[in-house]
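Repro:
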Amino acid sequence: MPDRLRVLDLTDELAFNGARLLVGLGADVVRVERPAAAALSRAETLHWHAGKRVVGVPESAEVLDGLVEQADVVIESGPLEELAGVRAGSGAVSSRWPRAVHVVVTPFGTSGPRSAWRADDLVAAAAGGMGWLGGQPGGQPKPPPREQATQLAGAHAAIAALLGVIARDRTGRGQLIDVSVQEAVAATLETAAISWIHAGRYPSRNGGVYEHVAHRVFRAADGHVAGGYSGSDRMWTDLLAWMAESGEAADLTEEKWSDPVFRWRGREHVDEIVARFVAKRSAASVAEEGRARALPWAEVATAARLPANSQLVARGFFARILGEGLPADGVTDVGFPFPAVEPPRPVRLTEPLPAPVEAPWRTAHPRGRRAATGTGRPLAGVRVLDLTWVLAGPYATKTLAEHGADIIKIESRHRQDPTRFAPSMRLRPDAGFDDSGYFINFNRGKRGVALNLRTEPGREVLRRLVAECDVVIENFSPGVLAKWGLSYDQMAELNPGVILVSMAGVGQSGPWRDTVTFADTLAAMSGLTSETADPGEGPQGLTFGLGDMVAANSAVLAVLDMIAAGRAGHVDLSQLEAMAASMGPAVLEAELGDSRTEAESRDPRAVVRPNRHPRMVPHGVYPTSGDDRWLALAVRGDEEWRRLAEHTGAPELAALASAGLEERRGREDEIDDALAVWCSRHDGASLAAELQGLGIAAAVVATGRDLVEADEHLAARGFYPVLDHPIAGPVRHEGIVIRMSDTPGALTAPAPLLGEHTDAVLKELLGMDEEELARLRDAGVLE
């Protein structure tokens, strides 16, 4: 990032992560204090704001305008009515600072019938469909731990900032960029909504058992491990051999279990035998032996133990935070999702330091505005060679396609992407591999080329394509590309300007370099799975591929950082590091002794109900009328509590209307029980609207069906646009999260059929004629 982007940080917790990610890329970030902002813990302050300089609350709008004028990017977040830089008029909003790249993150977006609604992480996760996926059957839903909804929104804000910079370098204009936290969540559910679109059903919380892959958390002799036996046939046969060696395979050695369909139908029986096998062994030994056998198994790590992870340590992932009152060498925090090419990933940061409002920036000059060179979407003219499969890589290239990149997706019948070929991932019972619902959603807007990379002619065609592309994204195992003569150095000889992003599970280097990973094992290694446990229970894990999509956002950020800087290079992105970076201040809390809740600090043995918050009471999920229907509710401050308590009409709540936070915390169980009774008498959607009218954050805990069919706000914002697929017909897709006012993204084409564009792309980019294509086809190269 040459000239170091100047970023003005006007965020609240909705987008803290956006400004932090830009610090990780070397941006010069100045944070403006917000009036009446909730006090953060020391760990939270250090995690979210280390590496920044801070100015006090501006004395006037003119002072703030002066700061904006000096910045390249402004990231602002909060309820729409509280944003300093947004002007409403004639039903639309605009920026007070039209020359700036102005990224605005609000709970529900700047337009639509719910644009004035409020939300914290819990409420946004509920409204976006993520809250529905966690928890035990029959119990209250709960979102993933560590504020993943707002962290996702922040990641999209950082992506939006770089898209805005790239667009400004093309057009010479700034713009307002709208990011809705609800939509950032709704686009990150894996199958939760698209199962409804394609099959008329949606997954429900089940205590942590994946619905479409045979993976889950198992109890070990001294802890827990995550793993399973989905994927290639080898995942099953090698696990079976491992169990058989010690005589613990029971009847699974019978021929019938080699049939994947039969095995899937008998999954409960298989899991029971695998669970017995794992329970006799330590978690560390299961993980170590799994790595040795190239099987996807991992120990469930805790935040306190994460800094001892030898893979993360070897790759220099962690950051040391220096500050007043801390040890001389600082304290350990999780680092950033990937090592940038230049400047290197920060490994030492100082606590946020005060700066004079007259001269807050470290850099001497703002980044120069380049002459306008074009129009259209920001990535128009950028060609990306997509060598990825399953979810993390395809999700990244999907996002790049939305903003104008030409994605050339390489596939083959000889390396079958399970999202296209596996029956369990086609979603519709009658779907074939060319109209798999999962594949359709995450591969729209790409051109498909069939290329058998097991053949030398196929690899030669691939090398020729590398020479014609600006970006290559791959998630092969480390070393595969080098065997094909396509290491980064070899690519650079073919194409000196190429950007290569590698997305291996744990990275291209380190002692675990060859580890086989799935989304659940990455979540386990990162520490996130350990925090999914209910009080007194074991961890449940996540039942969707959150880690894949977190890594995908990181890959997009890496690509945009390189494009904005005009730099070539190799980004070695570890999906584990991307996931570990989303642990928020957990590692710092463990080192500093900060507690997530007051109840825990008073009594470590206290049973703390799910979904509670250290600074908000009440804060939870409550049953409403109807079968398994729920409302998420978050009350900020004494005044909101008074309004809620009086509005309920419940005597036990009205009697506490004047209670402050500490008193409410002491009676939190009582308050929650009374709210559960009151909410259960009301329709959830009506009650959410009613409470939002009182200025209280609330939303229905949405299912996949709710999002697609019943959410009037998402419908008004056109979040599920329809593309006409040649086999599946008109199909709704999850929409674009980053809404750019001047250079908007677009969904331009459905996902390709297998090899649909092979001839066209090879003719266009490589100048092949019919004779050469026929020769390659006859040799089995184009299949």
